[in-house]
Amino acid sequence: MVAGIEASTQAYAKAQWIVIGFALGSIALALALGYAISWSLLGPVKKIETQLNQVAAGDFTQRIQVANRDELGTLAANVNKMCEELGLLYGQIEAASQHKSQFLASMSHELRTPLNAIIGLTEMMVTNSGRFGTEKALEPLRRVNAAGTHLLSLINEILDLSKIEAGKLELNPEPVNLARLIDEVIGTAGQLAEKNQNRLVVDARENVGALTADSMRLKQILLNLLSNACKFTKEGEVALRVRKVADGRDWVELAVADSGIGMTAEQQAKLFQDFTQADSLTARRYGGTGLGLAISRKLARMMGGDVTVASETGKGSVFTVRLPATGDS
Q1: Distance (Å, rounded) from C-alpha 323 to C-alpha 175?
Q2: Contact (CB, 8 A) for 291 and 262
Q3: Can you give the pLDDT at residue 221?
Q4: How does DSSP classify residue 254?
Q5: At residue 328, does pLDDT exceed 60?
Q6: pLDDT at 188 over 80
């Protein structure tokens, strides 16, 4: 009887260890299968996610290699096909953009030649009205001249934009005499300020530092900002302030401030977009192509700087041109 009990105890212990071993083996097998299944799922998903991130960044050249023959394999194949089609489409869009820029540049050049002739002839007829007997036509001639000059400025803006987009706009960096450049700009802007009875103020601090930039393009930027300030301000003040700023490195800031109509945050958000103005009402009331500010920012960035704006409705605007200083004057 004792021998039977011992045999039963041993059999029970053996069965217990067998059950424990089987349970542990089952758990290990389940973990291994789970890891294998999860890897077969997560691996392709991560590859697809990486590829989609590259597509979002503009890289359509990579392809996904997934061995799965299930839905994930089909998804990977569809992603590869999408990348191929997007690459072809992107190439077509890029080619179309280049053709558009070339067309605009060509047409702008062709239009400027006859316009310059019209402007030159009308100026000559206005100046020599007594000699040509055109006294009675002075007012119409002045209107033709003004319209031609305005149209020429619009064409020049389109030509500049097309050159920038095509990467063919070349800058001529040189040491800039800020005092002389500001005098020239203010001399031209003075007439613009008089149209709306605005007071033009200059606050140029001494020793703002030397500046290396394309002086013609910098003058274009400042004249555009001053022209806008004078256009959107009536019987107020337009100021050009020049100073040196140290912010990690030395900068020269040229700020154009006005006491005009100002802008909302929504209007400021789309201000520097091509062919975009603050809103449709502004476009109808004040005219223009909406290219001036976009071109000004692009030019400033090409010179290593930027153009920013701070404004509040009814309290005016401040446009700041920031360019890297190149040393002490």
Answers
A1: 13
A2: no
A3: 93
A4: E
A5: no
A6: yes
Helix residue ranges, H only, the chain: 2-56, 71-127, 129-132, 138-166, 178-195, 215-231, 265-269, 280-286, 292-302
| Rg (alpha carbons) of the chain, rounded to whole number | 35
What is the rounded CA–CA span in Å between residue 158 and residue 104? 7
Res. 79: pLDDT tops 90: no
Contact of 265 with 283, CB cutoff 8 Å: no
* Single-letter code of the amino acid located at 196: N
* Rounded mean pLDDT, 50-77: 71
Q: Are 225 and 195 in contact (CB under 8 A)?
A: no
Q: In the predicted model, is pLDDT for residue 245 greater than 60? A: yes
Least Cα distance to 158 among 82, 104, 109 occurs for 104
Residue type, 245: V
**Percentage, residues of the chain above pLDDT 70:** 84
Strand partners, 174: 213
Q: Say if CB 137 and CB 122 are below 8 A apart.
A: no
Q: What is the 3-state secondary structure (H, E, C) of 257-311?
A: EECCCCCCHHHHHCCCCCCCCCCHHHHHHHCCCCCHHHHHHHHHHHCCCEEEEEE
pLDDT at 72: 67
pLDDT for 36: 62
Query: Do residues 192 and 227 make contact, with C-beta atoms less than 8 angstroms apart?
Result: yes
Residue 282 pLDDT > 70: no
Q: How far apart are CA 68 and CA 66, in angstroms?
A: 6
Q: Torsion over CA of 39, 40, 43 and 49, rounded to 10 degrees?
A: -130
Question: What is the pLDDT confidence band of residue 297, given thresholds at 50, 70 and 90?
Answer: very high
313 is written with which tokens?
Answer: 């409705």
The tokens 């190149």 sit on which residue?
A: 326
